[in-house]
Design brief:
Number of helices: 36
Helix content: 55-70%
Largest sheet: 2 strands, antiparallel
Radius of gyration: 32 Å
Shape: globular
Strand content: under 5%
Number of strands: 4
Strand order of the largest sheet: 1-2
Length: about 900
Amino acid sequence: MVLEEDLSNNTAIASVGQQQHDHHHQHSAIINNADQHPPAVLLPAANQQQQQTMQNEMPLPSSQRLEYGVDKATDQSGPRLPTTELNDQQQEASGNLVEDDAYYYTVANTKTEEESWGRKLCGAFAGFLFPRLTPIPWSSFVLLSIFVAIPAIAYLMLFTKMGYGLSTYYYLSENYEKYSGYLGFSIALGAFLLYLFDCFYWSSPTGRWLRRTFLTLLIIGIGFFTLFESGDYPYGPVSLFVVLVALWLILIGKVVYKNVEPKAYVSWLSGPLFFVALVVFLSWFIWTFLSEKNEYNLIVSLAEAEQSGCEPNYADYPDLNCGDGMGGVCFTADIASGSLTFADGCDEMCTQVYSKCYNTFILWVGPFLVSLGLVFLSFFATFLRPENSPEQETTKLAKIWMFLLFGTWVSASLAGAGAGVSATLTALTLASFIAAAIFLAISYEQIERKEHLNRIGEQLVEKYGNHFDVFRGLLIVTCTPIFVLYFFVSFVIQRIRDLPFCPYSKPPVNTMSLRDIGGTGWLTVEARRLLREFQTWNRTKVFTYAIYWGFAFMVLSVIVSQFTLVFLSWLIEKTSVMPLGAVTGILVAIGLTMFLLPPVPGAPIYLVIGIVIIPVGRPIMGIFGSLLFAHGISLALKLVACTVQQKMIGGLLQHYVSIRQFCGVNSNLMRSVKLVLQQPGLGLDKVSILVGGPDWPTSVLCGIMDLELIPILIGTLPIIVLIIPTLLTGSFTYMSNLRLENGKSEFPWAGTVATICAAVTAIVQFGSMVIAAYFIENTVSTRQRELDAIPIDEDVKAADERDEAIVQAYEEVTQWGSLPVWAKSVLSVSLTSMIASCYMVQLFADECFREYQLTYTIEQRLDGDWKNIVKPLGAVANLLFLFSLILLYVYRSWAMREATSTTNHD
């Protein structure tokens, strides 16, 4: 038996014939030539066979055949429909139709259209969430699944809490961590010397043998070093697992499937990899709820911290006596009772001695990380299918991987392990790319690999070439210190190459990438090639984008992560003594103000309401009543915000060109949205855009179009699906920090549920956007004639043209070669300051900010001053951040004046 089903296509394929038998009057529809567009008519059928014959002989109008962007006359997933004209007999028969049946046909056709939308929507989700699996025999599928499961089971048993992970981490930490320093230094020194002496250019037989030997020893040494350092870097084993899985499967292919072409074999792995990933995830999910001991919360993390290889950090809390005098801590965490007991004189702050210990969380979430790694490899294996588009599959993998990483990071941050999981996800991503490179290396010869990568690169350049400067900016802000170190090392290597007794350390000069750069210089020929490539960039735009990336990072790491936490704790403290009505009024006022700001989404507003309402409403309504009240307030606030945006901004201010221009009424996106919103009724496409579309522009566009308010509000009601998990995330996060008088966690399960709710929130938020994007894209591809018929807003068009002229002038005056020296200096110093502030906050977070939690108070933890959360080094980082923004403002102000002056002059 062969696995013929392709998961990404199955849900999109539907049977057409069965729907034809469900016709109430057993009539067939005869539709004339699409160019004439006559009224729809019905032809009585003598019998079922005649009806089927007539259906196959009739053409569909072009507007219906091209529905959903697929020509139904040639669609391979459905029956072939000829495109010939109606014959004379059919045209004559069409005159016998009764008028009453025309209404039934219209309703039936509409129902069929909605059902087809549902099928295609499910197909779109399946195609996004699942890889395109290669059909293989069942025996091979089962056997390969077993081979994939072997290393997965081994890892689960040795390095996760589902097995003996605590014992393994403790054993490695106690017995081998002391040797990791020597091993790490030896590996670094050996790698540096091999690179310094150009081991990859050793071309003699002896040189090649030495290179392979040294590289093998380095790889083995890195593996052991990763295990030895697992106590301090718990994400090492899972990263090592992903790489070893790729090597293990390649070995299986060489031994068991040696007669199968390597490219085909790797593509076979997509199904078994995804299947095992799903089984591992479901096993972990079920295991988590089997016992309270399997959940993750503060009590569990403290109780198992020492067992997992963590050492208490007393140095950061010199004013507290957190030790018990015997090498342990002054508090006891009991998992069985869920209590936290403090000895006499032991401050509750002493629990923070394990704040940097993420081992327990990594041990608990380890099975999910295994699933992530296997899913990545499963998607990558689909690249090798010849019928797949590399560009489409690359984009698909990037989207699903970013979505999974973001959801995991949000969940871990709310669970209190955000910093540790950020490093874990980074290491896991790097290991996954290394494993993917192994798959690619075994599947293609060297020339084929280059051609394959070049083809992918060309397709990406063709589609995203205009956005490359954005990614170059990200590269600059993250890797500039690495580039500086690289150029210093290249200087040293070039000095070695110039030595007369090192003839073996010479790069080839006849390669395409180095052919035109030869000669001598201060740097190596490879470094000079990179510098030449850098000089071709639009450095002004790249530097500006780099500053924007740094700004986004600082906002997330400082303003959101630190100051927002302090603000929320202050808000909880102040509102806890206020009446419920006053607190509700404050939240409504703040929420409505945030909703009226175009860039602000609704999710953070619901999160804040979920956090604040619980402590205020609990004494009056209890937990359950407070949650219901918070949900009602959130939904009402969303509807009020939509009303204000639609009627007071879109309705009253629609005559202002700036409002219509901000909504982008002439863009294809908003024109498609407009076409869907003006449809009568509340179809799935309309509701999806109201819920998943951009909040502010969609509501304001409804006002500009003078749509009725009540139907729009009714269509917005499904937003409750997003409100519920978002609000519960905030509520359960707050509840997980509550303690009884004896130190026992009041809600030990709340942390786990908050993590799950955060993941559900990310899925719902992303899913609603995907559905809305699907219907918008469907409108663009199937209703282009109607889109073209929508009149262009001439006033907005003129404003857009003026802005475009200014943008072009701005790009001309900001070309790096034409910038004055002072402008280059201002932009460069701004970039340098931003990079320095980002690195300080990222690498020295503990020296920049004090530890703070949601249930802390400013009076107790920050000595009554919220600014005390910033340490001296953090103040320096913030000043560099502000200095960078000021310099950027000075530069942009000058550039805009020059651009405006040039435009006015022209």
